[in-house]
Amino acid sequence: MIDHLPPLRAVIRDHDLRAKKSFGQNFLLDLNLTARIARAAGDLTGADVLEVGPGPGGLTRGLLAEGARHVLAVEKDARCLPALAEIADAYPGRLAVIEGDALAVDPLAHLTPPIKIIANLPYNVGTELLIRWMTPAQWPPFWDSLTLMFQREVAERIVAKPGSKAYGRLALMVGWRADARIVLHLPPGAFTPPPKVSSAVVHITRLDAPRYPADAKVLERVVAVAFNQRRKMLRAALKGLHPDIETLLRASGIAPTARAEEIGLAQFCALARAVKDA
Length: 278
Prior knowledge:
By secondary structure, the protein is of the alpha/beta class. It has helices at 8-14, 31-40, 58-65, 81-90, 126-134, 152-158, 169-175, 216-228, 234-237, 245-251, 265-277; strands at 27-28, 48-52, 70-75, 95-99, 115-120, 145-151, 178-186, 191-192, 199-206. A 7-stranded mixed beta sheet has the order 4-3-2-5-6-9-7. A two-stranded antiparallel sheet has the order 1-8.
């Protein structure tokens, strides 16, 4: 046991917390696993942690037991609040719970840097939250690292390299400003109810500045348009960006006949600079 609170199965039974599909819920009940996820985020003793979608609090307990200075848990499902309140009582002053949508809450009002985001994200909002955290108005962002659970397919897209089927917008937008690696794989049977897919935990550490110079909005647009028709040659896929896109591609060191999945981050950033200048 990582603490003196009841086992999670008992918590779910006592509070009648059947997972709801509408909330994208799949509860992770093995406290050894939740502690491993907490440890994958590194030393927590000097950090505040934002957790999204804590559910009955398995990962929350792991974060607190691993020494997180303060945890802010944002939970949309009001049924989970009494179970989270019991955890807050067991760790006085170290857990704050907000009922609400993580997409609408300003965490900075409740957290003191350094801040880590650690979450078993609901599958239905995971990618949207990741893109939001990776594309703030100002860089560096409010967080130092992200340790997040995704469907395995999404996790593989985040860490993908050029030339692979998984490589695309997610890998580029994360790789431009951060280092990302998969730190844990979880089978469907680790969850209640078991999802239809495997899961993986990705650890993302932000860089102080982007890896290569580029305008964020232009880079996002170039990458999105390029991968929107990923099987086309870039001179065709990108023709709507500029009337002389072939010249811009060549100036960026990219063959106009290449396809998006063959192009690395440095070349995409060079192309974004050329498009902006043009």
